[in-house]
């Protein structure tokens, strides 16, 4: 019988993972070397709810959400530490997701999708914050409910369920779609 593991974010090879646990209905963030997950230890463990950890592509930072200020905000810290905690959001924030190059951190503000430009050196810092678009998409209180394409310009999000009680159209998953396209058009590039 141990502490329940809720979500995990794996860092790059030979790096660290960040794991959200739940103990007495409060979320904490633990870390462990990728090759020794049994060596898990506390990273951000307070009386507040720490949620949604995301290891940066470089493996040097962890972004997460915490309600320690009285509302959800996004923070980041160097991993494995020690190092300063940096506040990313300024008016509420949750669901942090890194860009593929680690230079930007996307997050959800109270009503808008936001992006923060992150500098890792000499010390972690937010150098700029921008509002991207009005966020009318589904949200989650415990994990990221969207993702960002590698180009950092497109998002995958889910629509809220209709309040009218209409039956949802369903979810379709297509695997091996490049091969399907290639078989119909003579090649993946359409030739």
Structure characterization notes:
5% of the residues lie in helices and 42% in strands. It has one helix at residues 177-185, and strands at residues 5-10, 16-23, 26-33, 41-44, 50-55, 61-66, 73-78, 86-87, 94-98, 104-108, 112-119, 125-134, 146-148, 155-157. The strands form four sheets. It has a four-stranded antiparallel β-sheet, with no helix packed on it. Mean pLDDT is 82; it is low at 184-191. The protein is built from one helix and 14 strands; from the N terminus they run ββββββββββββββα. The protein has 191 residues and is mainly beta.
List the helices and strands and how they pair.
Blueprint: E1 5-10, E2 16-23, E3 26-33, E4 41-44, E5 50-55, E6 61-66, E7 73-78, E8 86-87, E9 94-98, E10 104-108, E11 112-119, E12 125-134, E13 146-148, E14 155-157, H1 177-185
Antiparallel strand pairs: 1-2, 2-3, 3-4, 5-6, 6-7, 7-8, 9-10, 10-11, 11-12, 13-14
Could you write a compact summary of the structure shown?
With 191 residues, the protein is mainly β.
Q: Quickly count the helices.
A: 1
Widest beta sheet: strand line-up = 1-2-3-4
Please state the CA-atom Rg, rounded to the nearest Å. 19 Å
Distance between the termini: 57 Å
Average pLDDT for all residues: 82
Shape: globular
Helical amount among residues, as a percent range?
under 10%
Quantity of strands, as a count: 14
| Strand composition percent | 35-45%
Main sheet specs:
4 strands, antiparallel
Please write the string of helix (H) and strand (E) elements.
EEEEEEEEEEEEEEH
Task: Outline the low-pLDDT stretches.
Answer: 184-191
Structural class by helix and strand composition: mainly beta
